[in-house]
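Preliminary data (for renewal application), adenosine-5'-triphosphate complex.
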Amino acid sequence: MKKNLFRVIGVMSGTSLDGIDLVDVTFEFEEKWRYTIHHSETVKYPETWYQTLKHLVTFSEVQLREIDADYTEFLAHIIQRFISKNHINGIDAVCSHGHTAKHEPAKGYTYQIGNLSMLSKKLKQTVVCDFRAQDVALGGQGAPLVPIGDKLLFSDYTFCLNLGGFANISFENEGERIAYDICPVNSVLNHYANRLGFEYDNEGSMASKGSVDDLLLKRLNDLDFYALPFPKSLGIEWVNSEILPRINKMDLPVEIVLRTFTEHITDQISEVLNTTTGATVLITGGGAYHTFLIDRLREKTSNQLHIPNSDLVEFKEALIFGFLGVLKLRDEVNCLKSVTGASKNHSSGKIFTP
Ligand SMILES: Nc1ncnc2c1ncn2[C@@H]1O[C@H](COP(=O)(O)OP(=O)(O)OP(=O)(O)O)[C@@H](O)[C@H]1O
Ligand SMILES: CC(=O)N[C@H]1[C@@H]2OC[C@@H](O2)[C@@H](O)[C@@H]1O[C@H](C)C(=O)O
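Predicted structure:
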């Protein structure tokens, strides 16, 4: 019989570079998967690492290999500190995403740093990592990988909605998991909040003071991307070429931009949610703390919006990378072809032992 109780450390470094998310979690399988979070922490990047990671796409292959070794060592230090500080004993594995340095699935290429076997040696723990490469080798996008976790851990919800740099959603459609990006969220809101010297628009207080500019709202809602069928995804390049110039040429006060963009986000998200009635929606990612946005969304949908505790809002991705590692240890599918477009469902990731 397969082992059905695992305690692992899930580790994730996301696109916003706000830090390394760590979660100490137990997964148990009995008819269905359940999880219990014991400890969680985000370790902010020191300025030098922040600057290095921000510029990774410009690095040569040789430079990346050097950075990879340094980053793996840094990650080992952060994970070891988390384990020691919380007196964590008897874990089965550290399951780590690393940090995406380059991602060009169309060229069959994806590279996450921090996934060297050295991590296992330094930690003296089994490590499961490098979850995206095999999917890309199988012709998939190598992303998103979180939806299998949505399917197996959060099936009580009709929709799993994450409000990070972009809003992305996953749900069952004709017996298959579907996932795609809906529209930008914090990648745009932060850009304008920064103009007034703020990291972000706390709880949407600035947006709530502005009024909607109808012309800008229409120009945003009319963008071609929104009419495309799924699967589809967005990147910062699209924000830079399609969104920011449209907003900037109207020369509006920041409060009006933030208010209008919040209206745009809630228009786009509610359109997706309102394809169903009586649905439940799990909302995670930092955008769940933008109370003005959430209030506007509640006004536009009768579906039930659920914002969980902060552990789940902030650590769902780290938790799910922990879960992908557990599935890999059980040699079970952790990448869905319906989501990534790979030639088959498969069990992805490398296992290193010390
Ligand atoms: N109190 C708050 N009020 C409004 N917005 C907030 C608040 N707290 C966090 N946020 C927003 O959430 C962002 C961080 O969210 P998150 O960590 O989910 O983003 P991310 O890592 O870029 O996501 P992803 O990598 O999934 O795109 C912040 O940059 C900010 O825009
Ligand atoms: C290549 C890569 O690192 N992609 C990330 C990124 O950050 C958000 C979005 O783009 C998502 O596609 C993915 O991460 C999430 C956690 C995922 O794989 O589900």
